[in-house]
Every structure is written in C-alpha cells, then in structure tokens.
C-alpha cells in the first residue's frame, strides 16, 4: 500500500500540534493517528504519523492505556486479565493492579426490571476526552495539514 502524498504546507509542521511548542526547540518523536494502543498487530501499512514533542506524546500514554483498559473491561464485562476482548488490556490488567483497581471502581452493578444483573462502566471522562482530542488533532493534521492546537 502506498502512502498518501503530502501536499500540505511544511511551515505548518514547525510546532507540536498538541501544545504549540516549536519543534526545533523540543525533543520530538513520532505520534500515530489512531494511537497504536487501539490497534492490533500487525499494524496497518502507512499508518498516519506526525512529529510532535516527546513530552506531549509520552504524556498521553497513561490516558491511552486507561482508555484501552476501560473499553476492554466494558466489552468483556470484567477486569480479569484472562478474559479481555482486547489483548493489550489483558497485559495492562495483569501488570498494573492500581489501574485495574481504579477501573473496578468505575463499574456499577444494578438489578434491571425482571431481576437481571446488569453493569455499567463510568469512566473518567477527562481522560477519555484527552485521548479523543489527541487523535482528532492527529487526524486533522495528517488529513488536511491543519494544526488544530
Ligand atoms: Zn507538545
């Protein structure tokens, strides 16, 4: 698969799309959109990549891990590492008991009409919002060359 030619203005690639810092003044690395945390291996060819500052990129890692873990817990109905629908969440829950306990506290069990036990998961929406905005900025920048800081 061939990547899409990039005709965007290179001058718009001078700053971090997340914090607005000048990249020439910062340590940088590559950011993927969508976040690799949400993909299964093997990753798609020509995954959209942009240069961002390292501090921003690594700053999203814990929130991305949180989002993958709570999505998988909701899909799986449990935080049991062996029962996760998203394989990386199984590894997260097995290695991070603090995060697992935090996500367990997001689960609410209730009895539905008729007596069935149901559960809902109430995530930390600020963490989810940060990850969604990070990915939205990445996609907007990659697709239309427009930084949305
Ligand atoms: Zn930044």
Can you tell me the number of structural domains? 2
Shape: elongated
Count of distinct strands: 4
Order of helices and strands: EEHHHHEEH
Radius of gyration, CA atoms, in whole angstroms? 18 Å
Distance between the termini: 30 Å
Biggest beta sheet summary:
2 strands, antiparallel
Each distinct ligand: zinc ion
Give the number of helices: 5
What do the pLDDT scores average to?
90
**Structural class of the helix and strand makeup?**
alpha+beta
Residue fraction in strands: 5-15%
What percentage of residues falls in helices of 4 or more residues? 25-40%
Q: What does this entry look like structurally?
A:
40% of the residues lie in helices and 13% in strands. With 149 residues, the protein is of the alpha+beta class. The chain folds into 2 domains: 10-59 and 129-144, no CATH class; 62-126, no CATH class. A two-stranded antiparallel sheet has the order 1-2. A two-stranded antiparallel sheet has the order 3-4. A hairpin with a 5-residue loop joins strand 3 and strand 4 (117-121). Helix 2 packs across helix 3 and helix 2 (61-76) packs across helix 5 (125-144). The longest helix has 20 residues, at 125-144. Bound molecules: zinc ion (ZN). Zinc ion is lined by residues 16, 18-19, 21, 52-53, 55-56.
């Amino acid at each position: 698969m061939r990547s899409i030619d990039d005709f965007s203005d290179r001058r718009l690639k001078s700053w971090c799309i997340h914090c607005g810092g000048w990249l020439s003044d910062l340590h940088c690395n590559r950011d993927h959109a969508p976040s690799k945390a949400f993909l299964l291996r093997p990753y798609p060819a020509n995954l959209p990549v942009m240069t961002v500052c390292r501090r921003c990129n690594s700053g999203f890692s814990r929130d991305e891990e949180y989002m993958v873990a709570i999505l998988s817990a909701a899909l799986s109905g449990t935080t049991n590492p062996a029962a996760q629908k998203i394989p990386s969440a199984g590894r997260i829950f097995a290695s991070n008991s603090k995060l697992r306990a935090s996500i367990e506290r997001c689960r609410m069990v209730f009895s539905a009409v008729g007596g069935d036990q149901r559960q809902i998961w109430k995530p930390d929406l600020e963490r989810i919002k940060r990850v969604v905005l990070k990915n939205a900025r990445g996609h907007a920048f990659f697709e239309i060359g427009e930084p949305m800081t």
